[in-house]
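Illustration 12: Zinc-type alcohol dehydrogenase-like protein.
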Amino acid sequence: MKAVALLRYLPVDDPQCLVDVELPMPRAEGHDLLVEVKAVSVNPVDAKVRAPKDKAETTPRVIGYDAAGIVSAVGPDVTLFKPGDEVWYAGDITRTGTNQQYHLVDARIAGRKPASLTFAEAAAMPLTTITAWEAMFDRLGIDPDGADKGQSILLIGGAGGVGSIAIQLARRAGLTVIATASRPDTISWVRDLGASHVVNHREDLVAQVRGLGFRHVDHIAIFNDMRHWAACVELIRPQGGIVAIDDTDLPMPMGGMKTKAASLHWEFMFARPMHQTPDMIEQHRLLNRVAGLVDAGEIRTTLTRTLSPINAATMREAHAAVESGRMIGKIVVEGF
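Figure caption equivalent — predicted structure in token form:
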């Protein structure tokens, strides 16, 4: 089968950073689905895994952490799906990635693809949807169905992949959404998705948020790096919560968090499959629930750009777009 893989960890402009290979057909065992991959998306995690380092692989390494496709076969322990079912999922960072014609994924972290979406539109969403949902509803404890209506949330990185779905989920939960964006196109994007207010992350966040009439905000989600940590500590309400998705080497003073009795949460959407947690099926349920919201017209795809076909040259182009730091929404590559 066809696949896109790496053998060395090289800059994205090096044609050897991702290469076309032929690999043996995988076989579904245990809880596995064997999925015929129709479309994949590229996330910052793909670029981080592929980033230059002094290391080489002895066999081709396939990465990729979003896919939509059709179930080709199921393992003996699978009860959730059958061959022919259309699925979407983000996979498991400890296993072979999605950038191959046929891919194995644990059925407990896959969901039914929204019937109203194409494979490309669906592939844009799983990783970012799981991340946004877990960050706000599992980590910060916000009720997804409106019990916390009227509370405020500051979303840092509003126009990116995670921010684009988080805005929609937060608005559906009844929250007042303050999203960061700095360019006319990203400002328009986050407003169109439902942000109540937009602040410029290149300027003084504290002054801007307080200029909107908020002394503090109830929740903060940091969907990029931690450069705004001091502003977040200043803005979070006493006993409020901050969730972050990116590890950092930047200083994170905790004195202000302590005196506010505020909480810090880390979200890593691969934690459940990586550690085989007893509740890993929650990602299956989450994806099924969001599929229903999509099909009901309450949530829309965050796809903004589609490339084809799935090969090394096209994947390098997608990686370069993600690494540019100027992405709006998500980029998808479809069709082998």
